[in-house]
Design goal:
Blueprint (H helix, E strand, L loop, with lengths): L3 H10 L8 H12 L4 E2 H8 L3 H13 L3 E5 L6 E5 L1 H8 L6
Amino acid sequence: MPDLIDRAIAWVKSPTYIDFTTRQLAVLGVVLAEPQPVKVKDLAATLAVSKPVITRAVGVLVKHRLVERQKGRDLRNCFIAPTEAGRLFRSLFAESE
């Protein structure tokens, strides 16, 4: 069973490699773990960073179409939801059967 280092090496060598920071991957991981879209302020609290930090990380993930922004009913809240591409990306790191 390959470990995290082996998976990282394989990913960096793959043609679909995207250079993400650990923080960006953490944001994606939190979003994928939640059953519903996550508020930016809740992401910031979960990862113990400021909302602008989350906004920058989400911007990169949106650019790569791994997550999408959704406005709340009152337009003050911004929710982050995974896309199908984000779920597929996560599956690249799933345990091999």
